[in-house]
Every structure is written in C-alpha cells, then in structure tokens.
Design goal:
By secondary structure, the chain is of the alpha/beta class. The protein is built from 11 helices and 26 strands. The protein binds flavin-adenine dinucleotide.
Length: 399
C-alpha cells in the first residue's frame, strides 16, 4: 500500500495518521480537513477553555510532528466527493488526490432542531474552536444564558457559566438529564449537583421558539407550555448528526452513520471509517455509534494495526467516557443501554452505579472516583455473582 488519505483532521483523523506511523507504515499519508490550523481536541472547549481561552493547549501535536513524521496536512480544505472507481477524493477547489486506502474521519455536526427563530443572530452552538471562542468572548457580558439541551455539552457549559457568575437555565425535553447515556440514578445525582451550583433546570420542557429582541437578536426561549425564559445568550446543545454525506453519495452503506464491520472497514474494503461518524458492531451485540475520544482513538489504532500489520482480530475495546461538570468528573465504563439491574454503592466522591444485563456487569458510572472507574474498565462482562463475592467493591474485585 503506497498512499493512505484521511478525510477529517479531528481527534480520530490525527490519531489515525500517528498510529499508521507507529505501526511502521512507510508510505504517503495525506490528511485533509476543512477546519483551519492544526488538529486539536474538543473536550476542553466546554470545560477549561471557557475559562482560560488557551487555544495552544488544545493542539494535539505541534506542527513539527507532522513534518518529522512525513504526514502531509491540508487544513481548511473540504472534500466534496469520493470517486471510488478511480480511488480518488475531490476537494472543493477541484484537486484530485489518489488513495490506495481511504479513512473517513468526518465526525459529526451539531443538530439544529426545527425551532422557529433558531437562526436569529445570537444563538450559539459549541462544536469547534471558533464556536467556543465566540461564546467565551460573549460570556464576560452575559447575564443569563439559556441552554437548550441537558446533555453532556450543555451541562458542562452550564457549570462553566455558573462559575463565571452567569445565571443559567437549562431547558431539557426529557424527564431527566443526560437521559440518552446515563442511568436514572446518576441523572438524579447530577440534577442535585447542578441545583447546588445554582443552575435552574427545567425538565420535560420543550423549546418551541427562540425569542428575539427589537434588533432581531436571540433574547431567550419560549416553551411549548407557554413559559418564556429571557436570556442574552441562547446555546443550542441538542446533540449531533454524523457527517455521512460524502460516504452516502459514494454509495457506501450508511444507517445513522457509516456502517463498518468488526475490522472497521466500510462496505468498500478500500475505505475505513472511525470515530463519531462510524456505526460499528458494539459490545452489546447491536450496531452502535459512539461520540467519544476513546472510540475515535481506539478505532484509529485498530485500523492502523489491520492495515499495516494485517491484524484481523475483531474490534473489541471497552467503551469509556468522561464529562467534567464543575468540580465533578463523571466517568462511564461500558455501555448501560438495556441494563436490567442497577446497584448503587456509596463512594467518597459520590454514588457508583453498577449496571447489569443478563447477570453480567455492563457499565459502571462514577463521580470523582477515578480508581473505581479504572477498575471497572477491567471488569466489564464479569458475572454479578463474582462481584457480589467482593461486596461490589470494584477495586477489590480488580486486584
Ligand atoms: P471530530 O474530532 O469532530 O473531527 C472530524 C473533522 O472532520 C472535523 O474537523 C470536521 O470539520 C471534518 N470534516 C467533516 N467533513 C469533512 C469534509 N467533507 N472534508 C474535510 N473535513 C471534513 N468526548 C469525550 O470522550 N469526553 C468529553 O469530555 C468530550 N467533550 C466534548 C466537548 C465538546 C464541546 C465537543 C464538541 C465534543 C466533546 N467530546 C468529548 C466528543 C469528542 O470530542 C468527539 O467524540 C471526537 O472529537 C470525535 O473525533 P472524530 O475524529 O470522529 O471527529
């Protein structure tokens, strides 16, 4: 294999290039991404970056890394087409780049719900460094932020805004916070924590319209039940949609993401996909798409081992995730979907929720308990009876 092209220069694309070299690939590597500048990490955008504005600290590797590693990086360049029969990608400027293998690391974009007024100037969203910088600059003069969406990013932002003494209201359509990814027990715990931080949280609350002031700028949110919440910053944090268009137009199988097999190859064996955009055979037997640094990084490493070393073992990394909300580090090992039993243990940092499915440990949610989280990563899949023998003390069970 002579030339590997990677579309997307985010967390997964960067790791892909680095892992190819680590595995000993000596051919050409070309990374093409539509954002300007060096690849950077997104997690701090809703956390430390809001407070410190330190863009340099986000960079994944310095420019010298790409030069030394012989990795060509084309930033601010959008790929508009994949020509599979010619094995070429086409950029917006019309340049064609040939590939022997192509990796799609196109990530996801924010979902904008069809709420009237959402396009008013002054509504904000948070995905890129540019988004974060725009919000950070406004935060100093913001009095009341209305956050539409009580998921990880909305709540991380809410905690940062509270720390900056901004009044915050979170509007969440579901009956609990972070409902898509968390157990009801841990959702309830974080609701208490956000109340303690002074955040107003409205559950079962459907945003029906973004309000505008006399100049037409976003000035709050009207709910479906008639309530109106005035605010001078409206953050839309209602989840993401995978960037599948390139793949779909090229005829690759897509279903809520680009569908890949257990080696992370798409329906065209010359093309792999990873990270936020990839739907892969998940640990619970059903296809899954994960939005996490862990998935992007582990996918990239797996593809590199397959392409360079011929490793044909199926991808089987244990999923894990973290979210920092104020002083509280939420960590999740495994996937809790469909769990049929929850056991809650008190740990010094807060509750640890152990989720079981069919008698086996499926996921563990912890707060400010990194030791328990690390133990949990080793124990996913363990029979309930074995953990019971350790009184559900995960650190003891992992020894
Ligand atoms: P991305 O990093 O999004 O990169 C995809 C890149 O591809 C983007 O630059 C995109 O613009 C580019 N692209 C798309 N289409 C094209 C095209 N046609 N041509 C060229 N380029 C294209 N995860 C955690 O595990 N923990 C956290 O605490 C956490 N916090 C987060 C906070 C924020 C604010 C955000 C936005 C995300 C957070 N995440 C967190 C999620 C994590 O950052 C993502 O899961 C990860 O970045 C996914 O990597 P990726 O390479 O798949 O996609």
């Amino acid at each position: 294999m002579q030339r590997i092209v990677i579309i997307g220069t985010g967390q997964g694309g960067q790791q892909m290039a680095a892992s190819l070299r680590q595995e000993g690939f000596s051919g050409e590597i070309l990374m093409i991404g539509d954002e300007p500048g060096l690849p950077y990490q997104r997690p701090p955008l809703s956390k430390a970056y809001m407070a410190n504005g330190d863009a340099a600290a986000l960079t994944l590797k310095p420019s010298g890394f790409y030069e030394r590693s012989g990795i060509a990086l084309h930033d601010a360049t959008r790929v508009v087409r994949i020509d599979r029969s010619a094995r070429q990608v086409v950029t917006q400027g019309g340049t064609r780049h040939s590939y022997d293998h192509l990796v799609l690391a196109t990530g996801a974009r924010n979902f904008r719900p069809p709420v009237p007024g959402i396009d008013a100037p002054g509504t904000a969203e948070l995905r890129t460094l540019a988004d974060a910088e725009a919000i950070r600059q406004r935060l100093a003069t913001t009095r009341h932020a209305v956050v539409v969406g009580g998921g990880f990013i909305g709540l991380e932002f809410a905690a940062m805004a509270r720390a900056a003494d901004v009044e915050v209201t979170v509007v969440e359509a579901a009956p609990r916070l972070m409902a898509r990814a968390l157990s009801p027990q841990m959702s309830g715990h974080f609701l208490d924590l956000h109340h303690q931080m002074g955040t107003h949280v409205l559950l079962d609350a459907m945003a029906a319209r973004v309000l505008a002031d006399a100049q037409g700028r976003a000035a709050g949110v009207a709910l479906a039940d008639g309530r109106q919440i005035a605010g001078d910053l409206v953050l839309i944090a209602t989840g993401v949609r995978p960037n599948v268009e390139l793949a779909a137009e090229a005829g690759l199988t897509c279903d809520n993401g680009i569908v890949v097999d257990d080696g992370l190859a798409t329906s065209d064996p010359a093309i792999s996909a990873l990270g936020d955009v990839a739907v892969f055979p998940g640990p619970l037997g059903a296809p899954v798409r994960l939005e996490s640094v862990q998935a992007a990084v582990d996918h990239a490493r797996h593809i590199a081992r397959r392409l360079v070393g011929g490793d044909s073992t199926p991808y089987a990394a244990v999923p894990w995730f973290w979210s920092d909300q104020g002083k509280f580090k939420l960590q999740i090992a495994g996937l809790g979907h469909g769990a049929d039993r929850a056991i809650t243990r008190a740990e010094p940092g807060g509750p640890a929720v152990l989720l079981f499915g069919r008698g086996r440990l499926q996921a563990v949610e912890t707060v400010n308990a990194p030791g328990v989280h690390m133990a949990a990563r080793k124990l996913i899949g363990m029979p309930l009876a074995d953990l019971q023998a350790h009184d559900f003390d995960l650190r003891a069970a992992a020894k």
